[in-house]
Specification:
Mean pLDDT: 88
Strand order of the largest sheet: 9-10-11-12-13-15-16-17
Low-confidence stretches: 14-18
Radius of gyration: 23 Å
Structural class: mainly beta
Oligomer: single chain
Helix content: under 10%
Number of helices: 2
């Protein structure tokens, strides 16, 4: 009987320790917007969802994550959105998704939206009953609007500007329009060394030490870490591109909204929302 009582006591102690350890573990509250930013608290070696794809993320890197919790899970899991990271980390793959990672505070720290991506609204969401999807991802394409009758089977090469979650300014001389995850290499990927942005201002100034093409930047110094500046001007204007149903060309299938910008007096747009007319 004594042996039985001792065994039960040991089991209870082990169970209590396990419960205390689980209770002591804390988890990051990711949020429900399209863009959730966290900073890695340790180096991560992450497997992609595609075969033979692996990524190494240094400690202290700001990344974008997507909450990925299954209803029966006790805790929050996240996936890293590698398409939001600089070319030096994501490489040249077709699949930029990662496998699920337990979102503990030992791995991630929740951070505010970095100032360098505040040229667009990252935290906007719509109620589920609204027939409108938020698609803004920070990618700027040359032009004023999404072209009418855009053929997505073709590459439709154009200029693209993008600011990554880990703070790199990337510029593409010729990139497939509205296809940021298609295999492509940036013309330049420059670490942002300083950001100048006033609250409520339409201007976001991004400074780099590395040279950025004169198509979008100006050289302001020959020395120091702020040698080039790229100014993104949000115009607070929107454009619309109407897509019709193929079987009934008079019926509107969807409306693609785009926010207008200017970079060095050149027009750029960002796909921001897709609106579905209610029947």
């Amino acid at each position: 009987m004594k042996k039985l009582l001792v065994s039960l006591g040991v089991l209870a102690g082990v169970s209590l320790l396990a419960g205390n350890a689980e209770a002591a573990t804390k988890y990051v509250k990711v949020g429900h917007s399209n863009h959730n930013f966290v900073k890695t608290q340790r180096q991560l070696k992450v497997n992609g969802t595609a075969k033979k794809v692996a990524y190494t993320i240094p400690k202290g890197t700001i990344v974008e994550v997507t909450q990925d919790n299954i209803p029966n899970n006790k805790h929050d899991y996240v996936r890293l959105d590698m398409s939001r990271l600089s070319y030096r980390l994501r490489g040249n793959h077709h699949d930029y998704g990662t496998k699920r990672i337990l979102a503990t505070t030992k791995t991630f720290k929740k951070v505010h939206v970095p100032k360098y991506v505040q040229y667009y609204t990252t935290q906007l969401t719509y109620p589920s009953h609204i027939s409108r999807n938020r698609v803004a991802d920070g990618n700027l394409y040359a032009g004023l609007k999404i072209p009418d009758n855009l053929d997505y089977t073709k590459s439709n090469p154009t200029q693209r500007i993008y600011v990554t979650a880990d703070g790199y300014l990337e510029y593409y001389t010729k990139a497939p329009m509205l296809s940021p995850t298609v295999k492509q290499v940036p013309t330049v990927s420059a670490k942002i060394t300083q950001v100048e942005r006033k609250s409520g201002s339409s201007l976001t100034k991004l400074y780099t030490k590395k040279a950025v093409p004169t198509a979008i930047a100006e050289r302001i110094s020959k020395t120091g870490s702020q040698r080039y500046v790229t100014t993104i001007n949000r115009r607070y204007r929107v454009s619309a591109t109407v897509s019709y149903v193929k079987q009934a060309t008079t019926n509107v299938g969807s409306i693609d909204m785009a926010t207008q910008y200017q970079v060095k007096k050149h027009n750029f747009f960002m796909a921001s929302d897709v609106v579905f007319p209610e029947e």
